[in-house]
Amino acid sequence: MPKMTMIVRLSRDGPPLDLCSDGLNAPELTAQAREANQIFKQLSSTTETYGTVESSPYNYHYCLSDNVCFMTVAEKSFSKSVAFAFLDELQKEFMGQFGHRVANESRPYAYMAFERFLQKTKVRFTDPETKRNLDKLGSELKDVRSIMSSNIQDVLNRGEKLNKAAEDSHRLVEDSRLYKKSATNLNRCLWLRQMAPAGFVLAIVG
Questions:
Q1: Cβ–Cβ under 8 Å, residues 4 and 33
Q2: CB-side exposure of 41: number of CA atoms within 13 Å?
Q3: Which residues, at least 6 apart from 161, have a Cβ–Cβ distance to it below 8 Å?
C-alpha cells in the first residue's frame, strides 16, 4: 500500500515546493523522503508524464501535470496499475481545485486541506475489494508496461553528476572572475612601470 504520498511543484531554478503530503514525517521513511526529494530535482516539464523509480523495499511512482508532480511511495508488491490509478485520481481532483493557483504559490504546504481527500482516496484504493475490482478492469487500467522505469541508484548517481557539473560551472565562473581581476592588476602595474621613467623626467624638468 502507499506509505507516503507527496504533491510538489517542480522548479527549474530552485528546490521543489511542497504543496501537500501524507506520511512524510514517518520516522521509518526518512531515507525514502530524501530519495524522493532527489527524484523531484531531476523531473521537469519535459519528463515522461508517468514513471516509476525502482528501489528496495519501496518503489516511487509518479505522474506529472502542468509542472506539478504527484508521487506515491509503495511496497514493491503493490500493483503498479493501482498505484497509477490512485495518482490519476489525486491529480484530477487537485488540479481541478487548485491548478489555476499553483503556478503563483510561494508558501510550502499551502494545500494541506487536500490531505483529507488524499487519505480518503488512499483508503479506497488500498481496500482489498477495490483492488480486486480494479484488477478486473484489466485493459481499462493504464498499461504499466509502457511506463518508464528506472533504478534509484541511477537516479541518485545522475543527481550527483548534475551537482558536480553545477559546482564545476560555478568554479569556472569564479576562476574567470579572479583571472580578470589579476589581469587588470597586472595591466595596471605594467602601465605604472612604463610611465615611471616619464614621470621621473618630468620631475627633473620641473
A1: yes
A2: 17
A3: none
